[in-house]
Queue: 3 jobs
Job 1
Amino acid sequence: MSWTILHFIGIISYAATGAFVALEARFSFIGIYALGFITAFGGGVIRNLIIGVPVTELWDHSTILTVIMTLTLIVLIPLKWINHWRRWGLFFDSIGLASFALQGAMLASEVFSNDLGVMILAAMFTGVGGGMIRDVIAGRKPLALKEEIHTILTIVCAICIWLGWNSPLELTLIVLIVITLRMSAIQFQWRLPLPCNLKNE
C-alpha cells in the first residue's frame, strides 16, 4: 500500500461519508456533491496549510474524477439500497480516518524530516479535518469532538509512521487495526475513565 493507494482510499471513503451525511440531512443532489467534495478535500487543505505545502497540489485530474465518479454512483443508487447508510457511513469514515491520517503523517515526515510533533498535527488534521467541516455544514456535532478514539487513532498512525512502519504490509495492517478499533469503540462505547466522562450518580 503506497502513498497513491492511501490517497485514493481516503478520497473515496471520505467522499462517500460526505454523501451519506448529505442524504441524511435531505440535501439536494447538488448538496451531496458539495458535501462530498468538502469532506474529501477539507482535511488535505488544512494539512497543507499547516505544513506549508501548496494547496493546489490537491487538485489533480485523477483525484477530482475519482470523487465525481464516487458521488455520481451514490446519487444514482436507489435509496432503498442504502437504508443502512449509517453503518456504512461509519465504516467508510473509519477507512478515511486511517488512510488520511497515515498520508498526512507521511507527507509531514518528508517535509519536516520525521518530526513527530508536526507528524501528529498533520495526521490529526488530515484525518479529522474534512469530517469536522462536513458535520458542521450538515448541522451535526462533529464526530471528532464526540469520540475520543478519533484523535487517539490519528496519533497512533503518526507514531507508527515515525517508527518507520511504511511497508505495504505494515500500512495495510495499520488501516485494519484502526478500522477495527474505531468500530469497536463505537459498538461498545469506549471512553477514557476521566472525571469529565463519568456520569453523576
Job 2
Amino acid sequence: MDISYVSTTEAAFLLNISTGRLRSLLNQNRVVGAKKVGRIWMMPLNDRDMPEIIPGRRGPEGTWNKNNRTGNTFVHVLRNTIDYNRDNKTSHPVIAVKVGNKKDYCHALKIKGPCQIVYQPHQPNRSQAGGARLWIEVEPQHIVERVYFSDGDYGPPPEVIQQRARFKNKKSKPKKRKPKKKKSKN
C-alpha cells in the first residue's frame, strides 16, 4: 500500500484549521506519523484521505474535519475595505474566504484547481456569500491557500468590525413599547 503525504498548508486545508493551529498540533506531537523533511513538515493521509490528529486530554473537543470536505469555498473581495485602506493608508485584509460556517480574511489567495467567478446582480447569494452579487466558488476538493502580507494588518477588516458592532447593538437594544391608550368614559 502506497502512503501519500501532504504539506502543512494542504493538511490545514483538509482539516479546516489554520496553519498556525496545525503547527501547534505538530509541536505537541499530536499528528500521527508526521515527520520533518528539511524545513517542511510532511503528514501521512489515513484511509479517508485526512491527516490523523490525536485528541488532547483536556479542554474542548477539536474542531478539525474528520471527513472529506463537502461544501464549496466562497471567496469575496471586500470593496469597502479597499477604500478604507486607500483613504487611511492601512493594509487590512481585503479577501474573505468562507468554508462552511468559518470565515477567514487574507491579503492574497492561491487557488490550486478549477474555480468559477459568479455574478448574479439580481439574485445575491445571501446563504453563503453574505448577500454578495459577485464571488468566486471553488470545488471542495481543491485547496485555497491564504497569503498574508508580512507588514499587513491582521484580524477582521474594519467593515466587518463595524458590521459586528451594529449587529451587537441591534441585538442588545430592548424593544420600545408604545404606551397603551386609555379608554375614555363616554
Job 3
Amino acid sequence: MMNKKALKIFAIIIPVVFIGMMIYLFIGFQNKKKNVEGLQNIPAFSVQDINGTTLTEKNIPEGNKVLVYFNPECEYCQMEMHELSQINEKHKDINWIMFTDKPLMEIQQFAQKYHLDKAENIKWCNDPKAEVYLKFAMTGIPYFLGYNAENKLVHRSTGATKIEKVLADFDGK
C-alpha cells in the first residue's frame, strides 16, 4: 500500500520538477539572449582613464575597437597582454580600451610591464565599482568585446583567448 502511494507521489513530483527546470532554463536563456542583444551596439558607460580623462561611449576612439575587462593578477590576462605587446605595432587600426576595477597604480604598473603604457591605440581605464563589467553583462575575466567602425559587435569572448583570434573577427565584418 505504501509503495503505491509513493509511486503516485513520485509520478506527480517528477514531471512538476522537470517542467520547473525547463521553465527556469528557458527564462535563463531568454535573459542571456536579451543581454547579448543589448551588446550589439556599445552601451552607455563612463570611466576615468589613467590620465584622469573621462571616457564614455560617445568619446571612445573611432574605428575598430576592442573593449577588454582584465585583472592584472590574472594569468590569462598576463599572457594576452604579452601577446598584444608583440603584435600591437602591426595592428594600429585597432583601438584597445582596457578596463579593470584595480587601483590606478596597479593599472600603470601592468601597462608598463608589457610596454603598452605608451601605445597610442590603448586606453587604460579604472572601473572601481565594476559598473562596466555589470552593464556589459560580462561573465568572466578576461572578457573581450570587439566593435567595428560602426560600433557593431563583431567579437565576444571570455577566458583565455588568443589576441589573433579576436583580431580575425574584424576581417570581413
